User: Fold these one by one.
Assistant:
Number 1:
Amino acid sequence: MPSPSGHERDVNDFLTTRLRGLGLEVEEGEPLYPDSGSSAGNLYCRLEGNVPGTPIMLSAHTDTVPSEEEALPEPVIEDGIIRSASRSVLGADDKSAVAAIVFTLEQIVRNSTPQAGIELLLTVGEEGGLRGAKMSSLEGVAAKSGFCLDSTGPVGDVIVKSPSQKTVNATFIGVSAHAGVVPEEGRSAVRAAARAITAMKLGRLDEETTANVGIIRGGEAVNVVPDRCTVHSEARSHSREKLESQVAHMIDAFHLAAAEEEVDVELTVIDEFHGFDFSAGGLPIELAERAFTRMGLKTKRTSTGGGSDVNVFNLKGLPCVNLATGMERVHTPDEYISVESLYQMHEFLMALVVEARDVPDEDTAPVDTGGADAAATDESGTDAADADFTADGQMSF
């Protein structure tokens, strides 16, 4: 069931039916693209607790990156590995997490498993810039800890640190002219963009900071001096000071190149997401690690250079951690995940429910998530599952 960003309608309808079949009241937020018949909003539901403890929130996203034109997913299982037989992405990012979470909720409801309260938030538009998470409201969420399953790596990896990111978009405005007749009357916007990019420090700048120019568009014909060129770039860092310094360096490069080439430039800096840092621990980390220990799985704290819905949830005030699902080679037709990883996610979620029962709700204090605090700038009773992924419980998208 394809669901590229902005086209999650079919998957959301399927999930809503499945969750309502458990007796849960499912709410859907505003669609990202109201004028599109295939767009959808975030899904939220709550399973009320039946024992004391601390409530938790589970989250994953229902969208995927787009596949090659007309390519549809054809999941196959070979030697315990699930992959796509077509040129379509498999969609394990992040439907593997969606499947594990919904399957786990089904087991909990059907077995009347003791639990302290579980909230589910399935977001849309994550691959398009964390848009669903940014639209979400956590005001009514009772959970004191959130767990997002949306990272590559083996099940057991706990993402404790993520950077902040800013995008820097530049539009150079020059003067067009016939390139073979009067080129001296033109002012090339493309040449100005090239000068700016050449002057920039890009790539991996240090262990905490990266920068990249990803999109360049300009010109209409080879015989015309181009009067317009747009450049889309980004900078990321685990350090606020380094992020601000790199962004300022990129802005200076754009301005200087425009002046040297005698063109104008319009700049916009967008604060895409804020970093977080749980290196010192915190309730989400502690619960996750205890759950992995309960199931006898090795756990490892790690950092990432990427962003996820977790960055947004932490900024909104809900301490949340990202966890690896076992998916690999995401965003490509070679994406895959093992059946074992799916089952390990299910086992982890069941163990997490048990650990949350052992934490008195009143003892859960707010956690300082740390990270690079970049401001926006704009120049313009079941301890483990005993159920298998049977045909009756299988999730299929």
Note: Residues 372-397 have pLDDT under 50 and may be disordered.
Number 2:
Amino acid sequence: MQIAESLSKPQSYISKYERGERRLDFPEFVELAEILGIEVVSFVKNYQAARASSKVQKIRQPKKLLRGS
């Protein structure tokens, strides 16, 4: 199944998402998730958990000390 066809968009439109040249707005994200069989609520919960986890890891990382010359 072609995503571009399913969204009734040209392939170049989808390619911009893939290259990071264009961001998805929320309605587009929901439509794309439906096509890909992704449950939006679960995706968002997992995303939030991953972000929270990465913030905790950043806080726990020791800071590098700069040596004076």
Note: Residues 3-60 form one domain.
Number 3:
Amino acid sequence: MAMAAWPAIEGVTLDHSYDSIDRIEAAHRERLRADAEFAAVVESYLGETLIANVGAAAAWDFSSELQTAGQQVVFVTGVEKPFEPQVAVIQLRGQSTKRPGKPGVLRDETVRWDRKDREAALASFLKVPAEEIDLAGAYPIEGLDAAGYRSLVARLARGIGAAYVARVPTATWTIGDVSNSDAFGRLVLGDWQLFGAIQWGLSRGKLQSIIEEQFAKVTKTTTTVDLGRGRAHPAAGAGFRSHGASSTEIAGAVTPFERVLAEPGSIAARRALAAAGDPHEELIEKQLELRDLQRAGSGSAKLQREIAAIIARDGKTLAGPIAGLVSTYTFYRGMIAEVTLSGEQWVAGAATLLATAPIQHVQLVAPLGDLGAFLARPELLRLRTLLMPGFGASFGDAGAIQFAAAPTVANLRRIDLARDAIGRPGVEALAASPYLERAARINFAGNPANPTPHADDLNQYYARPNLADELEQQFGRRPWLDVPDAEPIHWDEQGVTP
């Protein structure tokens, strides 16, 4: 998508400044909620404004994410996850109309990908002295514009943050840098998203209770946390005892933890582990409860906050040695099931990772390293998902052909090879592979040859490229060339058993 001239949107002067995004939202907030065509125009402007401010490091491309495949997004060099303008508008639409809305949503969701802006914002924030805050005071937000609202939140954050640091001296203000985290691009205090907590408290008139709850947790958790319900469970690092089992031990599956490793998709295995008093007990129970609600078509904001609090408090300890072996890790159904790491890290640490947690999903980032060594690891056979987009010419047709010939990929169900410079020879090798006949989804978005069915904004797949028909005629039916039915609640659900 080329940069276009934007003289105005319905009377709002546009100059690709972040202030102009605030002006659009202030003038057309309700229209953005109701008018999809108008929202699409604004989404384009959000992306182009980010590119105008970041410069050559940012550019339009197509999403490689399963849920947004085919949508245009902005990739920023050095940032794993792209900026999705559609998500910014969804965030705006998702605000309740029954309480005062947070102004400036579109801008706040856009600038997260502009590192220079975030660094300037942090420096400016720290220059202003903190003042004492009365949590019981009245802080009305109705009628505030975006600038006034941000000023109020920043003032509260300085004062509350100063009191917090007095209790937790190791906490410092930083910028969240994990792109698949909600904290990405936001100012955070240690592990606490204080700005978000303040915004949530202001919108619901519960600022005092929200902040006091966090301070109470700090008082409890700055001392030793007994995750094992009275059993020793030292923190990650020297002396940490892994719960993992070797591959020969898994065959027997004698203990509840060994059963989970042997049956990573089993809900019954997780419940048995929780019932045995494992340190993961609380998180397993909470995440399974939320899963049940979501499968029933509902959810619970309170439960989600409780889960986030558990992970913030205990996540690194529960991760054990995994925390030092990967870039990021994610808990599903109470245990680490997804990790992000480089190809070199996988080769070095795969055995430890799969002996320590029921990992089913892996996302690779640079450096890829020796693809042959990566594919030779037998632990690949225990994965259901492998995401390795964006390696370009370092993967290419040669990498695709090598991938197709590897027996270790036979159990993968979801594969992402977007933007990997794969042409017709590589795609044909993958289609001919006997090891990929059961793969449910392979994403080729952004490659010279792309047989991936495309999706619309509602995630209903509606188009299959001619290349998919040609491959099927030549090599027979492949599930990943089919136009799929509706996606499950979450792709992790594809591997879950009762």
Note: The first strand starts at residue 8 and ends at 9.
